[in-house]
Amino acid sequence: MNDDVKLQLAKAKELLELTKAKLAAQEEANNNNDEQQPPSMVLETSTATVDKRTKVTKSTNEDSGLITTDGELMAMLSEEEDWEVRSLLDVFEDELEESDVSKQLRKRDVAGSIAAMRLRMHGEDYLKIFNTKSRWIGEY
After folding, report:
1. Helix 71-80 with 39-56: angle, nearest 10 deg
2. In 3D, which of 71, 39, 37 has the Cα closest to residue 56?
3. Residues 89, 96: contact at Cβ < 8 Å?
4. pLDDT in tens, 36-53
5. Domains of the chain by residue range
6. What predicted TM-score, i.e. pTM, was given to this entire model?
7. Rounded to the nearest 10 degrees, how much is the dihedral formed by the CA atoms of 74, 79, 82, 85?
8. In DSSP terms, which residues pair with 57 in a beta bridge?
9. Average pLDDT for residues 63-84, to the nearest whole number?
């Protein structure tokens, strides 16, 4: 293998091990905290998030519900927090799941679009584009 690939692979393995260790420690801490903390402590952590939101809010438009925030304060607060590297698939995990209904609608929309195109195009042009012998038709 190439030296650069080996280096990247070693870094990735190191990062993976570090992440696994962090997740295990976090799970252990959560299990211990849930057992040891009274319900009032759990409430305090959720109010801390609300408190941060009120801290960075400059003004609120009551008609539309839009808020104006203090960007510098938000940057300062984010520098104090612990950050970790996550892949986009982990971040948008909920959006990846697609229901059967949306899959059926997507297939129906594609089929309907192709059928409408066939009606609008001349037969020869349609056959050039949608060659039935081509195995790539319908691939996207």
Report:
1. 140
2. 71
3. yes
4. 555 544 445 556 677 787
5. 1-36, 42-85, 98-135
6. 0.31
7. 90
8. 69
9. 86
Is-contact 23 31, C-beta < 8 A?
no
Euclidean distance between CA atoms 9 and 2, whole angstroms = 11
Q: Is 65 left (phi over 0), alpha (psi -120 to 50) or beta?
A: left
pLDDT digits (tens, 9 = 90+) for 104-114: 777 777 777 87
3-state secondary structure the chain: CCHHHHHHHHHHHHHHHHHHHHHHHHHHHHHHHHHHCCHHHHHHHHHHHHHHHHHHEEEECCCCCCEEECHHHHHHHHHHCCCCCCCHHHHCHHHHCCCHHHHHHHHHHHHHHHHHHHHHCCHHHHHHHCCCCCCCCCCC
CA distance 82 to 80: 7
Look at phi and psi of residue 138 and say left if phi exceeds 0, alpha if psi is from -120 to 50, else beta: left
Q: Specify which residues 60 forms β-bridges with.
A: 67
Give CA–CA dist 56/73, Å, rounded: 6
